[in-house]
Amino acid sequence: MNNRQPDNKWFRSSYPQLYRRIDETSSNPGLEVAPSKRGDPTLRIGNVQVHSAYDPVGEAERLADNALTRAASDSVIVICGLGLGYHAAALCRRFPGRVLVVEPDLSIVGLALSASDLSVISEAELVIARSPLEAAAAIERASGGDWKRVKLLKHHPSIRLHPDYYEELIRTINARRNLDTARLGILVVTPVYGGSLPVARYCASAFERLGHRVETLDNEIYDAARRRIDGISSKLHRSQLTGLLMTLMAESITARALDRAVDLVFLTAQSPMTVDVALELRRRKIPTAFWFVEDWQLFTYWRQWAPLYDYFFTIQKGAFSSALKRGGIKRTTYLPLAADPNVHRKLRLSSEELARFGSDVSHVGAGYRNRQHVFSGLIDLDFKLWGNDWENSSSIRQILQRDGARLSTEETVKVFNAAKINLNLHSSQFHEGVNPDGDYVNPRTFEIAACGGFQLVDHRSLLPDLFAEGAEITVFRHESELRGLISHYLANPDERRSIAEGARRRILAEHTYEMRMAELLNYIYSYETTPAGRRHPDHIDNLLSEAGDDPELYDLVIRYKDRGVVTVDDIARNIQRQNGELNDAETIFLLMHEFRNWAREKDLL
């Protein structure tokens, strides 16, 4: 593998880091290179014949010809698999545009460089990505985000070697083609209260920024009713009323989804739902997506509900993913939390705000057992504790702010900005300090970082995939480390600022809700092909088609071209707001509206 031909020196200069990684990669004993019948080397890996054993060059020419029949001059051709490079070379000799070769196996790249002259593909871009999402990001950069330009050359033997990788990549490419011009109708169903309520709202805003039509069913309006029910002493009556309230909220989902002809219903943890409504949405072919932003081992209701949703997203993987698959849940994937930079941002605080919200050390959150234990040992510091449910912690009430009242989102952002050190200890009711098996990363980690705040966060197994320890975030693995870390970073403000800025840059580059919702939609529409709303008779595309050559009717409808589904009520309300004389089309629509209202009053509709 180290005896490379001189003609491949271009690779060393173009990909120096990759070249070093290949040098350090052990050779795969399953790779067999042998002469073909025509004399050119061919490759076999296990039971997969990667190139023709008779004529690999001729086979590659035919593959390239087939790809070029479907490609325009401005296409970006993505080759799935490198092999020994025959098909890539054949394509590059003919095609003057952008070519990307996606190959996840470094041992194959190294073998191709040692066995073949690949200088002919030096103008192509080699994408050696560990995950399909990384490969998709490279394709997006090459295509300028125009996924309609992306054409695939599928090297099927390479796909057989890494089926999960390439199938996910192909699904992602197809999804982004589908979504490139689609404006979806998305119904976001919020919880009544709790930590996932703001998450649902951040998701709704992200969908809107992505250009989709968003309907939000905000169930916080039922929180007062929930609290009234909780105050009823009879357990039986409390249970009955809670069930009725849940049914009311869930039935509202069906009513809104059908009335607004949405393409997708999106819910987060604790969003109201009933089995009947979930099955009714499935019967009507309206896809449902659920983001389970809770700990699967602590909140086990996922066992009952995951099978009822079409798509199930989690903030944990590993054992949870395996448990879901054992339960027959196929369309599920890991989707970590994020921040909304429009909400979680750096602020210029006044001196009064700095005095009110600032401190050496700060924490925002509820009084879980492990936090009560750890924070009781830090009360001698300049420590401000914000949040609720600290009633059982009399020893730390002296640092509790506002007598344990909840902070608004705006106030929380000010705390993150004002504190020198934000102490971020993930919650646990079962540990005295750091959970040694903790995996998911909480919303605060992303939100503090987006605000440009410095934080000390307890070790989580999934954290290294999201932030670089030392450069972007500082981690403690035991409570005994905290005092030393706090003292060090209070004495080194420049180091604090450098790490905080690194985390903020990482958030803006990779961890926003807009990015997460784009990833969620890409996953969903790698399975879903035609958004349901496009088939609705009141969809704007259908209305414009029906308007035909009537200029007044066309002018009336075209005003709503960015709305997705448009109803008679929508158009009538808009006409009624106008000043001036009505044209024929506007008069007809108002008459239709009046007739429709009359028919509803008479129960004829």
SSE order and pairing:
Elements: H1 9-14, H2 16-24, E1 31-35, E2 41-45, E3 48-49, H3 56-68, E4 76-80, H4 86-94, E5 98-102, H5 106-115, E6 125-127, H6 132-143, E7 150-154, H7 156-161, H8 163-180, E8 185-189, H9 196-209, E9 213-217, H10 223-230, H11 235-259, E10 264-268, H12 275-283, E11 288-292, H13 302-305, E12 311-314, H14 319-326, E13 332-334, H15 351-357, E14 361-364, H16 369-375, E15 383-386, H17 409-418, E16 421-424, H18 443-450, E17 455-458, E18 474-476, H19 482-490, H20 493-510, H21 513-524, H22 540-547, H23 551-558, H24 568-577, H25 584-601
Helix pairs in contact: 2-5, 3-4, 6-8, 8-21, 9-21, 10-11, 15-17, 22-23, 24-25
Q: Overview of this structure, please?
A:
The chain has 605 residues and is of the alpha/beta class. 44% of the residues lie in helices and 13% in strands. The strands form four sheets. A six-stranded parallel sheet has the order 9-8-10-11-12-13, with helices on both faces. Strands 15-14-16-17-18 form a five-stranded parallel sheet, with helices on both faces. The protein has a four-stranded parallel sheet with strand order 6-5-4-7, sandwiched between helices. It is globular and about 85 Å long. It starts with 8 loop residues before the first helix and ends with a helix. The relative contact order is 0.07.
